[in-house]
Amino acid sequence: MLIDFSARIEARQNAWIARRRDLHQHPELGFEEVRTAGIVAEELTRLGLEIRTGIGKTGVIGMLEGDSDGPTIMVRADMDALPIQEENETDYASQTPNKMHACGHDVHTTVALAVAELLSEHRDQIAGRVKFVFQPAEEIGTGAGAMIADGALEDPKPDFALGLHVWNEVEVGKVALVDGPMMAAAGDFTVNVYGRGGHGAMPHDAHDPLVAASQIVTALQTIVSRNVNPVDVGVVSVTEFKSGDSFNVIPASARLRGTIRAFDTAVMELLGNRIEALATGIASAMGCTSNFSVAHLTLPVVNAPEVNAVVRQAIDRVAPELEVLTDYKTMAAEDMSYFLDAVPGTFFFVGSANHERGLDYPHHHPRFDIDDEAVIPLAVNLMASAVAAYVLTG
Ligand SMILES: [Zn+2]
Ligand SMILES: [Zn+2]
């Protein structure tokens, strides 16, 4: 049913912005979201939702039961922050050293609570239920899985799942709503190279793992250019190289670590297999040995076109001035992918950068911040209206 939330949003937005700024001042890392989860649980209880706490350690689920039967729509928000020292000097900057909401999860928590507030005011018109899932530990890729393992998708299983991310790669006034794969699967790989250490002046007596590892780094650059089908995409980035600690000692080992990304599971497998084959062959050719391991952190985020169509209608109705990007993709990863692997749904980006105000640093940057005054009311309206399209009756 078509409800116009704008008057309520107008009346409540300052309180929501204040809540976001309070959360921003008190960031908590993955699985440590005790204060945040407490605020979420208290607010959901105040709104009359039934809550379950301690799901996936610090996750919270709030159930808004309608007065009549209908579908179960899940709204997902993440709550965790990052181990970053904030460099912003706003009056709501992080008060905890080396912890910072540098990805916007403070905003997501705020938006989902506000959506719960708006919809709870129409409980008598809800057919079905809205299941609010506040998850821990998105940044380390394991919070969604922990909640699912604790039964977050049962009693009842949602019919559709919705989530959003504020996104500073996109300006305020734009939204990215993409059918199919939108964010990449991510893996964390390690290659250890073992040689024979020795005197820096006598390399002929050593098997230098540092030189072998250097060759491996170079060779890995050929995987995307020579092995991945050019019509597919993939990323292999070596981001850590550790070996040696002296000017005159050839070390006995070297360690490489990095990330692989792709939209497709078969490409992910290819990337891993090629890293292992190149490392093994090069290490062996240089008198060394190697081992390879990979931890798969997330699946690709794949959006269901039928759910996007509902969100698109909501956008066109409540914010027709928005520019909707339908072909935006990023190799960044999200564990929302685990929910979307189990339940059809969508994850969309709400543009949050304001270049004029300097609010456009990238996610995970010590100066990351967003135009919350513009984004919070908009994001709440989009999410509430999309959910309302599924569950609100006249
Ligand atoms: Zn992040
Ligand atoms: Zn994030």
Q: Please report which band the strand proportion falls in: under 5%, 5-15%, 15-25%, 25-35%, 35-45% or over 45%.
A: 25-35%
Mean pLDDT: 97
The computed structural class is alpha/beta
The major β-sheet equals: 8 strands, mixed
Please tell me about this protein's structure:
The chain has 394 residues and is of the alpha/beta class. The chain is 35% helix and 28% strand. The protein contains 9 helices and 16 strands. It has helices at 6-25, 34-46, 105-120, 143-149, 209-227, 265-285, 305-318, 336-342, 372-391; strands at residues 50-55, 59-65, 68-78, 127-135, 160-171, 174-176, 180-183, 185-194, 198-199, 234-242, 249-250, 253-262, 289-298, 301-303, 323-325, 345-353. It binds zinc ion (ZN) (2 copies). The site of one zinc ion has 4 residues, from loops.
Summed up, what is this model?
The chain is of the alpha/beta class and 394 residues long. The protein is built from nine helices and 16 strands. Strands 1-2-4-3-5-16-6-15 form an eight-stranded mixed β-sheet, sandwiched between helices. Strands 10-12-8-13 form a four-stranded antiparallel β-sheet.
List the helices and strands and how they pair.
Elements: H1 6-25, H2 34-46, E1 50-55, E2 59-65, E3 68-78, H3 105-120, E4 127-135, H4 143-149, E5 160-171, E6 174-176, E7 180-183, E8 185-194, E9 198-199, H5 209-227, E10 234-242, E11 249-250, E12 253-262, H6 265-285, E13 289-298, E14 301-303, H7 305-318, E15 323-325, H8 336-342, E16 345-353, H9 372-391
Parallel strand pairs: 3-4, 3-5, 5-16, 6-15
Antiparallel strand pairs: 1-2, 2-4, 6-16, 7-14, 8-12, 8-13, 9-11, 10-12
One zinc ion (ZN) is lined by residues 103, 139, 363-364.
